[in-house]
């Protein structure tokens, strides 16, 4: 039959990415990034408990350009996941489900995550 060659359900080649779907995928990605970041956090804690030499090595890494990028990425993932989780709590309460409101809250989540990440980095690097 000719219908056997057609996909059984819509797929990514058919649909154009929408803000809501991109934010949903990013929410899952941020959760994965938080899991990876937890490994770095555990390493830092273990280094602190292992003595001055191990702690100095960890501090040198987190003070390097790569370490700062890792911390910035972790911070963005944390703030994005937090803000989007709050957005989902509002949805669970039945608020903000209209398409225009969903887009507005989506852009607000992105803006809040960027501002909070920038603030955290400025605070951390200034101190």
Provide a descriptive summary of the structure in words.
The protein has helices at 19-50, 52-63, 65-92, 99-126. The protein contains 4 helices and no strands. The chain is elongated, with a radius of gyration of 20 Å. The model has no long low-confidence stretch (mean pLDDT 93). Helix 1 crosses helix 3, helix 2 packs across helix 3 (65-92) and helix 3 packs antiparallel against helix 4. 11% of the residues are buried. It has a domain at 27-36 and 65-126.
Taken as a percent bin, the fraction of beta residues is under 5%
Task: Work out the radius of gyration.
Answer: 20 Å
The tally of strands reads: 0
How far is the N terminus from the C terminus? Answer: 69 Å
Structural class: mainly alpha
N-to-C series of helices and strands? HHHH
Largest sheet: none
Shape descriptor reads elongated
Number of helices: 4
Overall average residue pLDDT: 93
What low-confidence regions span 5 or more consecutive residues with pLDDT below 50? Answer: none
Give me the secondary-structure topology.
Elements: H1 19-50, H2 52-63, H3 65-92, H4 99-126
Helix pairs in contact: 1-2, 1-3, 2-3, 3-4
Short description:
By secondary structure, the chain is an all-alpha fold. It has helices spanning 19-50, 52-63, 65-92, 99-126. The chain contains 4 helices and no strands.
């Amino acid at each position: 039959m000719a219908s056997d060659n057609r996909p059984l359900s819509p797929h990514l080649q058919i649909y154009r990415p929408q803000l809501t779907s991109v934010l949903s995928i990013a929410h899952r990605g941020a959760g994965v990034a938080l899991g990876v970041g937890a490994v770095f956090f555990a390493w830092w804690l273990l280094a602190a408990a292992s003595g001055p030499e191990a702690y100095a090595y960890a501090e040198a890494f987190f003070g390097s350009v790569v370490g700062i990028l890792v911390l910035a990425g972790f911070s963005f993932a944390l703030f994005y996941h937090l803000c989007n989780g709050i957005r989902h709590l509002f949805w669970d309460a039945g608020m903000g489900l209209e398409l225009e409101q969903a887009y507005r809250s989506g852009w607000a989540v992105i803006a809040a995550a960027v501002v909070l990440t920038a603030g955290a980095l400025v605070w951390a690097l200034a101190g």
